[in-house]
Amino acid sequence: MRINHNIAALNTYRQLTANGLNASKSMEKLSSGLRINRAGDDAAGLSISEKMRSQIRGLEQAQRNAQDGISMLQTAEGALNEIHSIAQRMRELAVQGANDTNNDADREAILDELEQLETEINRISKTTAFNEKKLLNGDLAAKVDTSGDIKVGVAAGTGSTISALDVSGALASETYTISIDDTNNKITLTRSSDRVSQTLDISALSSESKTFSFNQLGVSFTITGKNTVAELKAGLNSKTIKTAAGSAAAEFLIGTKGGADETLSVAFSKYDASTIGDISTANGSDTIEDAIDKLQAANGLTKANFENLVDTMDRAIKDISKQRSALGAAQNRLEHTINNLGTSAENLTAAESRIRDVDYALAA
User: Fold this and answer.
1) Mean pLDDT throughout 201-214?
2) Of the N and C termini of the chain, which has fewer Cβ atoms inside 10 Å?
């Protein structure tokens, strides 16, 4: 008698093999803690899980970015806090110097301390940095790219644009002030760093494009629009432009929205004695440096000059307070951003876990 096939044995062997494979997979899931260890376990689930993991890691990095942003803002705000204290002390000295009970020797002693405090403001401005990025020396000031347009508001329906801004060489990162004299039809451009200025005639201004070349300053720009000189003055007078070939302010990538990067941009103004206090250039206001220079001039230790310094310090303190408020507001926003990102990452992690992680009760 010949037995060619043992069906019962073959069935037993097949079931044993299948159970062995299932046991192996269960052991793999139990040991790894993952329901999906390879694409074959759940192809669609793996694809969804990987996309979720990408989002989670992005949210976690955005949290770290926001925290770094807070650290940078705190660094800048701490430096401004010290400048604030110095400005308050300088105002106190200015009030003291304005008292006519002081003689020249007394005022000379007051000026000595004012000069030292001015130097310290400049030092803080130049050296305050975060991760080797200077924060208060003007490198992170709000700037307009040299290839961009500067929109200025004038009469309704007759918008004016300054375009084709051309700045080159060492002047590629500089601050300029434009002012217009509608009585004499003159436009003046002043470079803030050294107070060098140049004046051009604009009596020929019309609806056609007009290019102004300030050769002494190495700057040229084009004005287009149907404006009279008076209208142009209303929109341009004492407008400050800052040019730079590169990035403008500090930007913190704090998340994504609709596939596009979402950032928080913060501009840090230049805070040294040559800029603080000059809030209203059109009115001829002095910076701290200007006010100190008047005191240092021959026969400059006068009551009037000390009173001028008091006014300058009032503007400086107001200016610094405004900047510190802006930095504080940005810090508060970033703190809420971090909280929101943490909640989003937590919820997304829970959803990804339900897809990817193993249920031990079922796997066992």
Assistant:
1) 68
2) N
